[in-house]
């Protein structure tokens, strides 16, 4: 009733879920915001606690440093502490910028004031200790001991009476006591030691005053020692006063440190208590809010579950009817939310399934009839494919015969080309021989011409010899009896010259005939050379033609091989097509069976009160396949008619 008054039932599930989760998220956000705020407060107080702890740690370090200084008297320790004090001042200033509450501010101001007092006290202690350490040299044990040693050696080296030596040693012992007491003053700084030193100095002064000036005492040794220890005593008294002032400053520093430590501890305790309070309050509030969130979550889960499960059960029942094949159910959504929309969608799905099953049943009847026709067409196509395969086989056989003939023609052309090549080579060799003969004949002609020229020279010599012989005969005749023998010799010479001329003429005649014949032979050989060149040119042309014929035959052979290969592939493809047609026929039969099975499955759905109609299965028509002819290499020897 409350939900109806609030109008929640009219909301969609999305809005209801958003509303429920939004409230839960708001609660979680509130818890988170409260927790984060508390964490920031805790962090703030923790930071303040850290500040107090760090300040306390710094004070402890300063206290430890003071103890170290007391043990070592090393002024650098105090100098280092001065630097740390500056850092501590920065720490206080930085943490003063934090968010301090009204009850924290007075305590923080107190800490700051006490730290200033502590810092001033520390500075005073530092200055006093610095002054005290600078005064230690005035009461140095080493220097005073050195003065006494010099005094002692001077007395030993000075001739004195025993009485004088005793007085001088007594005087030295008093000064040595003052030196020892100064060490106690340096270590403890008590008034009693100063009084003892004053008493010793008074005794030494009285003894110094009683020393007679005319007794031969070494006053050049006594006076410097006395003057030094007089100043030594004054330095010791000044050191004592400085020591007391440093002690007072140290006491003030300790008191201010204790007071500052107490204030810091109070701040630390206060911030820790605030942290504990905030943590307890935060835990309590978060527990309460968490319990409220859990209760609200359980209530929202129960309500949302109730809204979802009831419509889901109704839709589940509808789905079970559809799964059983009952499409006659009619449902109506009870609400307008998502589950109501789901119920409406289920109703639409039921109606569409009803219509779809009806359409499928009609389509199945058409599919059953169509599959029978497809099977018959596939069988017819298979028969025609077989016939086409037989024709391709016959064509392949004819192409094989044509390929064989072209190959033989190509081989003959290659042989003729080789013979023409040999003839070309022989013609070339014959031409070379003829050209060699022509060159030889030309050489013979040249030699004959040279012989003719030589014979002409011989004729000229014979003629001149004959003239000389004639002249000799004339001269012999003139000489008379004395020249007769010379005349006989001249006659013989004329006879020899005449015979030589005659022989030269005969040789010239023969050479001329030989040259004429050689020229005739050269002309014939030249004509033979031209003829051989023509033969060589013709044979070369024939060789080129035979090469072209052989190349064309090779091209024809390769082309026919490609055609034969293509026909073989076509035959293979045809065979595959035939096989695929057979498979298609079988698949059509299987499809027909599946269509019948689908019709049976569709009949399982009940879309009306009438019983389902049985669909008859038509018998497929399968024509006989044509016989495939065998592949033969010879088809009557008449492949040219292809």
TrEMBL record:
Subcellular location: Cell inner membrane
Pfam families: HAMP, MCPsignal
Organism domain of life: Bacteria
Domain Methyl-accepting transducer: 363-592
GO biological process: chemotaxis; signal transduction
PROSITE patterns, per database record: CHEMOTAXIS_TRANSDUC_2, HAMP, T_SNARE
Membrane topology: Multi-pass membrane protein
Annotated ranges, domain T-SNARE coiled-coil homology: 522-584
Transmembrane segments: 20-40, 278-304
Keyword check for Transmembrane helix: yes
Domain HAMP: 306-358
Disordered, as annotated region: 611-642
InterPro entries attached to this UniProt entry: Chemotax_Me-accpt_rcpt, HAMP_dom, HBM, MCP_chemotaxis, MCPsignal_dom, T_SNARE_dom
Main location: membrane
Record key words, sorted: Chemotaxis, Membrane, Methylation, Receptor, Transducer, Transmembrane, Transmembrane helix
Example of a GO MF term: transmembrane signaling receptor activity
SUPFAM superfamilies: Methyl-accepting chemotaxis protein (MCP) signaling domain
Keyword Transmembrane listed: yes
Similarity comment text for this entry: Belongs to the methyl-accepting chemotaxis (MCP) protein family.
Protein name, entry field: Methyl-accepting chemotaxis protein-2 (Aspartate sensor receptor)
Species name: Mangrovibacter plantisponsor
């Amino acid at each position: 009733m409350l939900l109806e008054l609030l109008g929640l039932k009219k909301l969609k599930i999305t809005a209801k879920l958003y509303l429920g989760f939004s409230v839960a998220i708001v609660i979680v956000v509130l818890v988170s915001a409260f927790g984060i705020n508390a964490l920031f407060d805790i962090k703030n107080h923790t930071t303040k606690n850290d500040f107090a702890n760090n300040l306390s740690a710094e004070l402890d370090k300063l206290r430890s440093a003071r103890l170290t200084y007391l043990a070592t008297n090393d002024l650098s320790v105090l100098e280092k502490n001065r630097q740390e004090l500056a850092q501590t001042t920065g720490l206080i200033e930085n943490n003063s910028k934090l968010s301090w509450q009204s009850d924290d501010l007075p305590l923080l101001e107190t800490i700051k004031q006490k730290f200033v007092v502590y810092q001033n006290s520390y500075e005073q202690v530092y200055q006093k200790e610095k002054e005290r350490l600078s005064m230690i040299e005035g009461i140095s044990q080493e220097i005073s001991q050195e003065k006494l040693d010099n005094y002692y050696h001077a007395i030993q080296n000075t001739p004195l009476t025993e009485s004088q030596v005793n007085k001088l040693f007594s005087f030295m012992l008093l000064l040595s006591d003052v030196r020892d007491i100064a060490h106690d003053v340096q270590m403890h700084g008590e008034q009693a030691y100063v009084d003892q030193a004053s008493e010793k100095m008074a005794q030494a002064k009285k003894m110094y005053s009683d020393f007679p000036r005319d007794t031969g005492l070494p006053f050049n040794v006594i006076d410097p020692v006395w003057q030094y220890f007089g100043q030594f005593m004054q330095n010791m008294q000044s050191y004592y006063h400085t020591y007391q002032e440093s002690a007072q400053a140290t006491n003030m520093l300790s008191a201010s440190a204790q007071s500052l430590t107490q204030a810091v501890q109070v701040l630390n305790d206060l911030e820790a208590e605030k942290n504990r309070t905030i943590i307890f309050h935060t835990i309590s509030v978060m527990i309460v809010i968490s319990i409220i969130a859990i209760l609200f979550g359980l209530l929202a889960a129960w309500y949302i579950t109730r809204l979802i499960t009831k419509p889901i059960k109704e839709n589940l029942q509808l789905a079970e009817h559809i799964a059983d094949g009952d499409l006659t159910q009619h449902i109506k959504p009870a609400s307008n939310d998502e589950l109501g929309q789901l119920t409406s969608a289920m109703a639409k799905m039921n109606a569409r399934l009803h219509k779809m099953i009806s359409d499928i049943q009609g389509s199945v009847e058409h599919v059953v009839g169509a599959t029978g026709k497809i099977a018959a067409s596939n069988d017819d196509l298979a028969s025609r494919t077989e016939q086409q395969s037989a024709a391709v086989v016959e064509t392949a056989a004819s192409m094989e015969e044509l390929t064989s003939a072209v190959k033989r023609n190509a081989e003959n052309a290659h042989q003729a080309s080789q013979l023409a090549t040999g003839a070309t080579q022989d013609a070339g060799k014959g031409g070379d021989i003829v050209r060699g003969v022509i060159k030889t004949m030309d050489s013979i002609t040249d030699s004959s011409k040279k012989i003719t020229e030589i014979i002409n020279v011989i004729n000229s010599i014979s003629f001149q010899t004959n003239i000389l012989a004639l002249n000799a005969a004339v001269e012999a005749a003139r000489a008379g009896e004395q020249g007769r023998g010379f005349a006989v010799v001249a006659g013989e010479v004329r006879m020899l010259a005449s015979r030589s001329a005659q022989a030269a003429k005969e040789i010239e005649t023969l050479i001329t005939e030989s040259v004429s014949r050689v020229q005739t032979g050269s002309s014939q050989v030249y004509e033979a050379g031209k003829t051989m060149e023509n033969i060589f040119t013709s044979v070369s042309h024939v060789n080129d033609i035979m090469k072209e014929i052989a190349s064309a035959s090779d091209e024809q052979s390769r082309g026919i091989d490609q055609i034969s290969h293509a026909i073989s592939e076509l035959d293979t493809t045809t065979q595959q097509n035939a096989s695929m047609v057979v498979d298609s026929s079988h698949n059509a039969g299987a499809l027909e069976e599946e269509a019948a099975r689908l019709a049976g499955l569709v009949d399982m759905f009940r879309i009306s009160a009438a019983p389902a109609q049985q669909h008859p299965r038509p018998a497929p028509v399968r024509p006989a396949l044509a016989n495939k002819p065998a592949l033969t290499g010879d088809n009557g020897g008449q492949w040219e008619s292809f």
